[in-house]
Backbone:
């Protein structure tokens, strides 16, 4: 975490730092690693994380988003489209309206 301090203190890489911070806390405090496995996605200039149950960790929408495999979820100006939440072949993209 100390390696990320420069990023979020200088407002660069906030999305990366946020995703790592939240997912580490969730995996450490809420569930053993064998149950909850977050994957990180890079959408070009933006990073986020999600797990097989569809829990999304994204600094942009500033709210909890529950993804649904094979569908789209709108959250404010963001729309997330999920083709798969499977561990071996996840598929997520998002657009900003």
Residues:
């Amino acid at each position: 975490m100390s390696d990320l301090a420069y990023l979020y203190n200088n407002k660069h890489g906030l999305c990366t730092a946020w995703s790592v911070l939240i997912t580490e806390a969730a995996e450490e405090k809420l569930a053993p690693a064998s149950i909850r496995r977050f994957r990180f996605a890079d959408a070009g200039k933006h990073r986020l994380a999600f797990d097989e149950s569809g829990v999304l960790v994204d600094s942009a929408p500033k709210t909890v988003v529950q993804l649904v495999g094979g569908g789209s979820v709108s959250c404010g100006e963001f729309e997330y489209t999920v083709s798969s939440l499977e561990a071996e072949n996840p598929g997520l993209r998002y657009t900003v309206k």
Notes: The mean pLDDT is 78. The first strand starts at residue 39 and ends at 42. The CA atoms of residues 3 and 17 lie 10 Å apart.
